[in-house]
Every structure is written in structure tokens, then in C-alpha cells.
Amino acid sequence: MNTLICDSYEDMSRVAADMVGEQLAGKPGSVLGFATGSTPLGLYGELARRYRDGKIDFSKARSFNLDEYYPMKKDHPQSYSHFMEENLFSKINLASTDLPDGEAADPEAECAAYDRKIEAAGGIDLQVLGIGLNGHIGFNEPSKSYSMPTYLTKLTKSTIAANSRFFAEGEAQPTTALTMGFAAIFAARSIMLLINGSNKSAIAKKLFEGKIHTDVPACLLLLHPDVTVILDRDALG
Ligand code: GLP
């Protein structure tokens, strides 16, 4: 695991954007894996800026997102589909974008189809990840066992509480989601894990112990041969 420590969130976002830029320069038809949450917003802003300034081109690249709430209408303001459209897809020129379909009538069939689509695209070249306060990756919550394929998962109380800040008071908040499992994440040729803010320092510390804490999903990344953790000083604690 490579670790890059940045002075600020803005720095972290620029370093992450540099990595995406290098990936696309080396392979314009790259398959990018994207995450949601507040962490990658700086990266997405930076990518949009670089595209606008003619410094990066996504026209041959495609993307897959880690997860989507289920059930969830695509045009719901809190859907990950809407989040990605607002914060990135509408601002750059990706050849195609995919997320698990929160409107699918048959979630299991949708999960299997999503894995097939990623495989057919040749797998993910560069996967962007954030980390939940409890160490979750995508929506792979701490558990005794972890799913390899994409699957319908139940969110933990702490994740529902952490994500409640995005929902209006009294608004129904989903308690289940479709998430990529560890097969597609691990098949990614390289992974960047972004961690920022002092609220993530406890979970970052666990990761840096270099032990596979099985109740911290992010620790499984220690087994992947090409992971770069990019974090700001606040996350170091
Ligand atoms: C959600 C997403 C994760 C993300 C996490 C952290 O639960 N499913 O992919 O990493 O939130 O979010 P934030 O970056 O806002 O802390």
C-alpha cells in the first residue's frame, strides 16, 4: 500500500486528479470506478475544471459506480445517480457511465447483470474509493463474511445515521443498497483510497496498523497489490 500525505483536502483532490489524468494519458479507453460521498467531491470538481480547461479528455473512457441505494428512483435528489450527474457526469465527456439500477424490479438479476457489464468492459483500471466511518467500502458494511459479487445489502444503523445529513428531516431514507462486492473491487488494476478529515482519523489508524481487522472492510485492501491511500493531515489525527 502506497501512502501519500497531503497538506489539505484541496491538495489531496489535486493529487487524486493527477492520478486519474496519468491513467487516462496512458490508456485513453480506461475503465474508471467511481465512489460517492463527500470525500471525492474535490476530486470531481478538479476533474471538471481540468476538462473545461482542455487538460483532460474522457471521450474514450467509461465508468462504473460502486453502489446505489435500493429502492431508489434515478431522479431522486439523494440518488447516487443524481449525485454523479450533478457533480461529475454532466461536466465531463465520459463515453458511458453506469451505476447499479436502484429502480430494477429484480435486484438480484440487476446485480448479476452489473457484474457482467463490468467484466465485459474488461474490468476496472482505476477504482476511486472513499471510506465510511466504520471502515465500509462502497456499501460493504462490517460483517463476518464479505460478498464477492455485487449484491443487495442492508445498511448498518451507523451508516444510515452518517448519511442522514443528506436527507431532509422526515424524508424516507433507504436502509438497503446495491453495492459492488469485493470481486470487482479487487479485480481493479489499481485503487486509490481517499481519506480526509479528523472524523476519519480513528478508522485511518486501524488501516495503517497493517493488520487485517476483519470487521473493517477497508483492511481487506491491504491484500491488493496496487493501492494508493491519499489522505490529508487531519485524517492522520
Ligand atoms: C457512502 C458511500 C461510500 C463512501 C462513504 C463515505 O456510504 N457508499 O462509498 O465512501 O459514504 O462518505 P463520505 O465521503 O461522505 O464520508
Architecture overview:
The structure is a single chain. This protein has 237 residues and is α/β, with parallel strands linked by helices. It has a single domain (2-236), classed as Rossmann fold, CATH 3.40.50.1360. Helices cover 32% and strands 19% of the residues. It contains 8 helices and 10 strands. It has helices at residues 9-26, 41-52, 80-87, 107-120, 157-163, 182-187, 201-208, 233-236, and strands at 2-6, 31-34, 62-65, 67-70, 96-98, 126-129, 151-154, 176-179, 190-195, 227-232. The strands form 2 sheets. A 7-stranded parallel sheet has the order 1-10-9-6-2-3-5. Strand 9 (190-195), helix 7 and strand 10 (227-232) form a beta-alpha-beta unit. Helix 1 (9-26) crosses helix 2. The mean pLDDT is 97. 2-amino-2-deoxy-6-O-phosphono-alpha-D-glucopyranose binds next to helix 5.
Give the bound compounds. Answer: 2-amino-2-deoxy-6-O-phosphono-alpha-D-glucopyranose
Q: What is the CATH topology?
A: Rossmann fold
CATH architecture label name: 3-Layer(aba) Sandwich
Write down the overall mean pLDDT.
97
- The total beta strand count reads 10
Terminal-residue CA separation: 19 Å
Adjacency order of strands in the biggest sheet: 1-10-9-6-2-3-5
The secondary-structure class comes to: alpha/beta
Low-confidence stretches: none
Approximate shape: globular
The amount of helix comes to: 25-40%
What is the name of the CATH class? Answer: Alpha Beta
SSE sequence, one letter per element: EHEHEEHEHEEHEHEHEH
The proportion of strand residues reads 15-25%
Number of helices: 8
Compute the gyration radius: what is it?
A: 17 Å
Number of domains: 1
Largest sheet: 7 strands, parallel
